């Protein structure tokens, strides 16, 4: 019977090695499965675009053909609740003291295959007891992350958003088969690279359901002009890194043979706070004493006995203040608010003093 709808309960997201040289198992088919589930997923979307060029000639008004002259781009976007750093590590991000994107720069973990599985209608994907052949699987291959952002705000749950662009898009019956990865030179699937989706779980052992706004602490101190963020009532913090990709092509290759990160790379952090009291300061002093800041956001595990362990921590090193704005209006009981934006340049794979640095717990 055809299904009437596809609800979130039936879906789960996974990530595995790519491209052609990637192995889905650590040591042949008898080793550990390297396809990993992403947990606490909230949104999931994928689409593809095919660029065409019309071919015309004298003597005929209509186009002779609509030729594909550029490889199609598959866009894959998802978000998840931040509870630890497990998802980030599965996606190939590095932990401190290495920079967040150092493994992308060295190609150690730049490309991945992404999978979305769908259980039969009405069933949870987690702990499904039917046949694995009942599932449908969507595979996106040769996927490179082009954006990563995390937001924590009063009244919301800390959430990470990830954008990926890939080369191929495949729909399977079941949870195994020939991997979606392709050879960029001719677009052919890599027949020797099989995958197997492991059983879906509702979460990691010991993983909390979510972190809350009250579990967020910011280490910002006195930054900017006229505001002390230690005393201010911070409402939201957002940090992101844009990893725009340039498709490198060559004659004789049907697809881009590489999707390289566009440089220079900048990380951005935005903070919104309600101002409790203004401090003294002068904008002119910024020109004489243009400081750099190390800004840290810690998300702690909930604990009834006090501060729990830091489950997720991100530090922006050597950041500069780009903008600061105050606003106030009649009827706003929160009073004056301030918005600050900082940027930091991301360094190379061995740079430990510039950019974003991640640490935390794996469960």
Question: What does this 3D model show about the protein?
Answer:
It is a single chain. With 363 residues, the chain is mainly beta. The chain folds into 2 domains: 8-48 and 69-196, Pnp Oxidase, Chain A (Roll); 213-238 and 266-360, Pnp Oxidase, Chain A (Roll). Helix content is 4%, strand content 45%. It contains 3 helices and 22 strands. It has helices spanning 86-90, 102-105, 284-288, and strands at 11-17, 26-29, 36-38, 41-49, 52-57, 60-68, 73-81, 111-118, 136-153, 159-166, 168-173, 176-178, 194-196, 216-219, 233-242, 245-248, 258-261, 266-274, 293-300, 310-327, 337-345, 355-360. The strands form 4 sheets. The protein has a 15-stranded antiparallel beta sheet that branches. It starts with 10 loop residues before the first strand and ends with a strand. The mean pLDDT is 86.
Question: What is this entry, summarized?
Answer:
The chain has helices spanning 86-90, 102-105, 284-288; strands at 11-17, 26-29, 36-38, 41-49, 52-57, 60-68, 73-81, 111-118, 136-153, 159-166, 168-173, 176-178, 194-196, 216-219, 233-242, 245-248, 258-261, 266-274, 293-300, 310-327, 337-345, 355-360. The protein has 363 residues and is mostly beta strands.
Mean of residue pLDDT? Answer: 86
The CATH first-level class of the largest domain comes to Mainly Beta
Sheet of most strands:
15 strands, antiparallel
Number of strands: 22
The name of the CATH architecture of the largest domain is Roll
Structural class: mainly beta
Oligomeric grouping of the chains: single chain
Kindly provide the radius of gyration, computed on alpha-carbon positions and rounded to a whole number of angstroms: 23 Å
Number of helices: 3
- SSE string: EEEEEEEHHEEEEEEEEEEEHEEEE
The end-to-end distance, rounded to whole angstroms, is 39 Å
Unreliable segments of 5+ consecutive residues? none
Which percent bin holds the helix content?
under 10%
At CATH level 3, the topology of the largest domain is: Pnp Oxidase, Chain A
Tally of structural domains: 2
Shape: globular
| Percent of residues in beta strands | over 45%
């Amino acid at each position: 019977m055809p299904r009437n709808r596809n609800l979130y309960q039936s879906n789960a997201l996974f990530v595995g090695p790519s491209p052609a040289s990637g192995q889905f198992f650590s040591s042949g088919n008898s080793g550990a499965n390297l396809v990993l589930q992403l947990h606490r997923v909230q949104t999931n979307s994928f689409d593809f675009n095919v660029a065409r060029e019309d071919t015309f000639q004298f003597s005929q008004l209509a186009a002779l053909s609509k030729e594909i002259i550029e490889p199609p781009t598959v866009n894959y976007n998802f978000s998840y609740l931040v509870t630890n750093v497990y998802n980030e590590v599965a996606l190939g991000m590095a932990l401190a003291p290495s920079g967040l994107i150092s493994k992308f720069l060295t190609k150690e973990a730049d490309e991945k295959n992404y999978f979305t599985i769908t259980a039969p209608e009405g069933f949870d994907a987690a702990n499904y007891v039917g046949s694995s052949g009942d599932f449908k699987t969507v595979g996106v291959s040769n996927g490179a992350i082009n954006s990563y952002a995390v937001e924590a705000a009063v009244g919301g749950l800390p959430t990470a958003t990830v954008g990926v662009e890939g080369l191929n898009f495949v729909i399977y019956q079941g949870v195994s088969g020939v991997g979606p990865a392709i050879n960029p030179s001719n677009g052919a699937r890599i027949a020797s690279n099989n995958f197997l989706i492991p059983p879906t779980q509702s979460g990691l052992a010991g993983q909390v359901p979510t972190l809350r706004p009250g579990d967020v602490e910011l280490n910002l101190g006195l930054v900017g002009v006229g505001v002390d963020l230690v005393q201010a009532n911070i409402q939201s913090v957002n940090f992101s890194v844009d990893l725009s990709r340039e498709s490198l092509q060559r004659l004789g290759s049907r697809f881009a043979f590489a999707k390289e990160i566009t440089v220079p790379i900048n990380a951005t952090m935005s903070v919104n706070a309600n101002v409790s009291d203004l401090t003294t300061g002068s904008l002119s002093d910024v020109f004489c004493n243009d400081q750099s800041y190390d800004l840290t956001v810690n998300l702690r595990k909930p604990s009834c006995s006090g501060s729990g362990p830091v489950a997720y921590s991100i530090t922006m090193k050597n950041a500069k203040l780009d903008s600061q704005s105050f606003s106030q209006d009649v009827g706003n009981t929160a009073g004056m608010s301030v918005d600050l934006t900082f940027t930091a340049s991301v360094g190379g794979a061995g740079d430990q003093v510039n950019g974003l640095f991640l640490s935390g717990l794996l469960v």
